[in-house]
Amino acid sequence: MDVLILGGTHHVGRNAVEVALARGDSVTTLNRGLTGIDDSAVRQLRADRTVRSQLESALEGRTWDAVIDTWSAAPAFVASAVELLAGRVGTYGYVSSRSVYSWPIAPGLDEGGPVVAADPASRDETDYARCKRGGEVAVLEVLGERGLLARAGLILGPYERVGRLPWWLRRMERGGPVLCPGPADRPLQYIDGRDLVAWMLDMAEEGSGGIFNTVSRPGHTTMGEVLEICRQVTGGQAEMVWKEPEAIEQSGIEAWTELPIWLPPTGEAAGLHSGDVSKAYAAGLTCRPVGETVEATWHWLTSEGDPESLRDGTIGLKADKETAALALE
Question: CA 20: distance to chain centroid?
Fold first, then answer.
């Protein structure tokens, strides 16, 4: 296929470039050129998509079989891209999020669950859920069945700038006693960014659209398996100390942000690791073993360095707080 990737330099966008090239697709990226990619096999267009004249100029006279769009900010700029590409693209793949569902997300929720209200013309980018839902509406209003909405959840793998799996890898690398949030058999649900885009490109090649929850089946792995693999690939010197959710709460530690990936098995957030993904699996979604995701992330970290989220400390547990929690009986 001829594939246009809006972005293409970070996490899912970068995964999309690499997966599409490996499939033998012809790849074009469109971005501002601030980061860029060093690959002569990719045709690179330059434009700030928030400036309509730049976007129009860059897209003029070109057509593609499929688009992959990962935009997470103001939905108005999804709407403008969709409008300009409507007559020159086959399938428009939009990487959305399960955050579009009304909170709290019920365990077992499928694609028919209630969603947040959103305006596709909005330029407000302060509410992530409404931004993603607004992007969805923009795609559906213009393209209908040619829109492919991938409602991803936790996205892991190489190039993960948020830093969730990278933080655990670096923490295990430092060694010593490591606070591990239990229970160890807590089922997890996530998607490797490479599996996400591979499925989206397969769907586009088939001319298939629709709305899908695109994460692994619940229990594809567990918290214990993820952390043990992190420990092994970083040298195996860390001591894993498991604490139950009650002890984590007593310590005032925040799930998801201070202890990335993890959420307690009960409470409002429990449904984030237990969504219904039967529709996506019926449509061909597959998820690689978690060990491959952890190892590839570690290889990226050790070859390219930490993402900014780790360097500036915006994610993960501070050492003094971890020490205090470990001391609790």
Answer: 17
Kind and range of the H or E run holding 187: strand 187-188
Name, in order, each residue with C-beta under 8 angstroms of 45's C-beta and a sequence gap of 6 or more: 28, 29, 30, 31, 58, 59
pTM above 0.90, yes or no: yes
Confidence of residue 36 (pLDDT cuts 50, 70, 90): low
Q: How many CB atoms lie within 10 A of CB 279?
A: 16
pLDDT tens string 2-29: 999 999 888 999 999 999 999 999 999 9
Cα gap 166→135, rounded to integer Å? 28
Distance CA 45, CA 107 (A): 42
- Taking only the tens place, the pLDDT of each residue in 237-274 is 999 999 999 999 999 999 999 999 999 999 999 999 99
Q: How confident is the prediction for the chain on average, in pLDDT?
A: 96
Tokens 């990487």 -> residue: 95
> E strands within 209-270?
210-214, 221-222, 238-243, 255-256, 259-260
CATH of 162-188+220-272+290-327, one of 1.10.3210, 2.60.40, 1.25.40, 3.90.25: 3.90.25
Please report, as a single letter, which amino acid is at residue 210.
Answer: G
Compute the chain's Rg from CA coordinates.
20
